[in-house]
Amino acid sequence: MGLSNALVSELASIVGAEAVKSGDLDRHLYSKDAGVIRGEVSVVVLPRTARQVASIVRTAVAHGLAVVPRGAGTGLTGGAVPEGPAILLVTTRMDQVDVDAANRTAWVGPGVINLDLSNQTASLGIHFAPDPSSQAACTIGGNVANNSGGPHCLAEGSTVNHVLAVEFVTAGGEIVVAGSGAPDPPGLDVRGVMVGSEGTLGIITRILVKLIPNPPAIRTLLIAFPEVRGAAATVTDVIASGVVPAALEMMDQPLIRAVENFVHADLPVDAAVVLLAEVVGHEAGVDVEAELIERIATDHGAFQLRRAADADERELLWKARKSSFGAIAQIAPDYYLHDTVIPRTKLVEVLEQIYQIAERRNLVVLNTIHAGDGNLHPLFAFDASDPEAVTQVNQAADEIVEISIAAGGVLSGEHGIGQEKRDLMHLVFSPVDLDAQARLRDAFDPEATMNPKKILPAGARCFDFGRPIPEGAWL
Amino acid sequence: MTGLRSTLGKLVGGSAIEIDGAPAADLSVAPESAEQIATLLDFASEHGLTVLPWGSGRHQGFGGRIDPDVIVSTSRLAGITEWIPDDLTVVLGSGATLGLLHDQIWTRRQSAILPETSPEATIGGVIAAGVSGWKRLRYGPTRDRLLQVKFVTGDGRVVTGGARVVKNVTGYDLPRLLTGSFGSLGIITSVCLKLWPVPEALATVATDDPDRALAVTHRPQAVLETPDGVSVYLAGTAAEVEAQAAAVGGEVTAGHSWPDQPAGECVVCIRVTPVDVALVVTSLTAHSFVAAHGVGEVVVAVDPSEIEGLRERAEAGGGAVVVERAPQAVYEEIDPWGTPPATIDLQRRIKAAFDPLNVLVAGRLPGNL
Do domains A217-316 and A331-444 have the same CATH topology? Predict the structure, then answer.
């Protein structure tokens, strides 16, 4: 459905005609993210300022339309894909960066590319810690919306640990700031709730991020194992030893082989699994920690230890890890990437179950795992033109969620819920839990203007067993 | 009240208790489960009773004063439910003390990175007050380690938010919302915390230049200043600690010895951006204080007449001055929080979403919320 000409001109009067896109091609291009779900876009607007965003929200409310925010569209869960008539608000032009080097913070627009920020602050010796694999393309607004992680969030935490304040436009069209550059601002932690809320509570227009010092020394290790069990035991023992590596990643054999063909990093293609471990810190400490990890790995049967000799080799090893998804294209035209979390100690048993699911359904599965966090990313390579393959992949997806939850895990560690997992929320939360989340959402956005039909399943407030609110109650 | 008293006593399966240091209330009870608290809060909502949750009382000096009908103690929710050392997670009741938790997890050299000098405080109180220890320079605030929270809303619903995994974006972040909510949204009954391994070597180094100390060390655990001087708290491998201690250059003491809270009847926390800490410290004269460089916290004993002036300067720079404890009369004269936050209307609606009849700690939060 397109918008009426009157609405298009109203939006054009806010942001300028060239920043409103209502043609069929644009509406089609913006109707999906990097995942598999396609939606319906009424019109695309690309504001530059918070005041423009506020005007767009007020216009949307006046016309009974939803507003769906979108950054670079690298999300995988349909979080930035409208499910009904909506204004798609693209934040990529909101890319101001204002660094406060002394306080190690920066106010950034939601459209700033993740890697661009760290590149800009490199000369100051500080960086933005969250580093999703898509960091060369994804926006910080998207990172905040999904509370994104990345390999280095093992030691540094996900995006929420690095956001001090957010400026956002409320469903009522007001611009407010939650949080502060000073610690623990008084009152409820609205900032903490905004992070990870996938655009459902307000449109974020500016973000105060924390920047952390670049480590003076780094050691990057690639360790090959003949079986998964030894690698998993290494992960557990390393963390129990008192060393928390900056990153602790696992890749399985199918993935190693696909990646090796792609990046030629001399990876051990005979290994059942490799660990990519990184320790950072003071020059005097990193070798000791690297040796400790190597010793633990050797005790658990590692047959090859490789330590990056210089920055180039380190970059190559990380390129191997982060280009996993590009490498898949050699195997099959399409892929479905999962994201669940389990307690770290359940890694071996859950991975074995994933292999069994793939075998039973005749699917190609490759695994890249944030092992230190227990964050699984099984990836099915398939051909979407084969309906049987699509059915098998979708059913395998549900099974993976089920086994993850049976192991005490959750639906998502860093990709978010969006539309993809919205209807699975009841697997981890009771009706009362979901009702509480729905009440929270309603407190921000009672008319469901902001990215509706995401995160919570329909009918999350399906029952009301509370007593009627008496007259004069404090509301 | 006698009828209500006996009904409430029956609801929680026990008789009234006495709580040292708590304000006068018609009834104080210590339920033994979240379900009992739910029954009690449902009853309170029905009869319009006001309720104050109580742990050790350690953080009850924060915020507006409460005149409760009922005090709910968490003293019977005081156990460690499950500690999984290999996952670095622990689940415990909100009434468990920091001392109890420390003594157990220290056996595997693990730490929950909680306030260092109040072992009598309960975990529920620490989470509800949103307070952090001095090591937040390295590990971030307490709210970054609350993985899961179970609580009872004002209208008596038992809600769980988050999960027992270390990385999670499944649903809205209720654990963070509950951290620092001072019991206004619900009574916390149990939590799951992320733990950290304690590094091999710890040392404290004296210095007189906090900025230089921050510059020549990599991610120290804390850089604290008191009237006695500045200390840098280092941790890591023995080699790394030794090298960094040498770079700082002052007298080295093995281990970490944390300063006591400032002594005085009226203690406030000045919260400013990290670079403003030095300015705040310069403005203090004969005060007892602890200043956290690199973080932006200065806890200081003051004369109540100084609060307005300190607050004016802090708020001008985007900070705050928060009363941590003070004689009763101070609360009648001075707002314990200062200027309400910009999101106060939103906060009022959030409060109403979880406590529609406003039975929980009305007036404790900023803006008399």
Answer: yes
